[in-house]
Write a sequence for this structure.
């Protein structure tokens, strides 16, 4: 690989959004083809710019460790450069990148045997055995609080911390769906899960997070 | 319909995927049940709040620079 080519990529990786290239309007598939077929540096730089935050964010969510997340980020982009020629247009680049990221992140997690959650969500429900909500939801209703409170920095930190309390298999489903905005079908393919399994994990994760937020806002109400 | 059914159908309700009959029964229950009304409203607000997590950025210039250096060394070798 020529030094001019390498230099070109690095210039593009470092570039901010304010200097978008002509490649910014192309689809992921077009960018890969331009990179593979034409050795197009701008195309590769654009792919990096599109995915660097997503890859790092997923890796950080799974591993819970910035150092591991950075290692995963590096692995994924090295793999991307090495394997770009094998990418076929019918697949979505995003799904491929997410899958590589998830696999690399879980490998780090297994190797380190760290960041395991003590929370069990398999049977997590807010209702009692009779199927009623037991009068606890209304008592802690925070939905009409002003936006300035609900979207406060502290509330965001609370939800971030609560997400990280989720067991890993729930945490990654939640992140891909509610943070990255992928469909249940895309997540099922990336994680090799059935769509009902994806929905079930997302459902339990959201119930847990709603409860955590209710506790937080209830505490906030008591002290304010 | 029980509160449990509202909870277990909340994703379908939010995503507008429920059949007409289930939707109708669910909305009737919510209208009559303050607990379920509060549950649905807080669930919606939670989704608004978690949506804000998308706007956060984590990759620092240092992380980008280290990525650059690694790729440079790997591609040269």
């Amino acid at each position: 690989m020529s030094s001019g080519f390498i230099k070109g990529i690095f210039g593009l990786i470092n570039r901010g959004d304010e200097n978008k290239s002509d490649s910014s309007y192309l689809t992921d598939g077009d960018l890969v083809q331009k990179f593979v077929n034409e050795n197009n540096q701008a195309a590769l730089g654009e792919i990096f710019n599109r995915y660097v935050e997503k890859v790092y964010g997923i890796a950080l969510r799974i591993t819970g460790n910035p150092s591991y997340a950075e290692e995963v980020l590096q692995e994924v982009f090295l793999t991307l450069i090495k394997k770009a020629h094998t990418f076929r247009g019918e697949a979505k680049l995003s799904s491929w990148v997410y899958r590589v990221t998830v696999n690399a992140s879980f490998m780090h997690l297994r190797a380190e045997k760290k960041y395991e959650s003590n929370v069990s969500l398999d049977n997590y429900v807010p209702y009692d055995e009779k199927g009623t909500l037991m009068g606890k939801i209304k008592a802690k209703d925070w939905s009409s609080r002003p936006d300035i409170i609900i979207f406060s920095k502290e509330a965001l930190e609370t939800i971030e911390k609560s997400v990280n309390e989720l067991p890993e298999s729930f945490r990654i489903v939640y992140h891909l769906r509610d943070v990255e905005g992928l469909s249940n079908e895309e997540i099922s393919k990336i994680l090799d899960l059935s769509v009902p399994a994806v929905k079930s994990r997302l459902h339990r994760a959201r119930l847990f997070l709603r409860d955590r937020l209710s506790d937080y806002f209830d505490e906030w109400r008591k002290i304010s | 319909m029980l509160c449990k059914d509202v909870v277990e159908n909340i994703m379908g309700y939010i995503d507008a995927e429920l059949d007409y009959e289930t939707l109708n029964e669910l909305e009737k229950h919510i209208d009559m049940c303050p607990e379920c009304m509060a549950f649905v409203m807080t669930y919606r607000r939670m989704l608004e709040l978690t949506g804000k997590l998308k706007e956060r950025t984590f990759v620092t210039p240092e992380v980008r620079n280290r990525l650059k250096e690694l790729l440079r060394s790997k591609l040269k070798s």
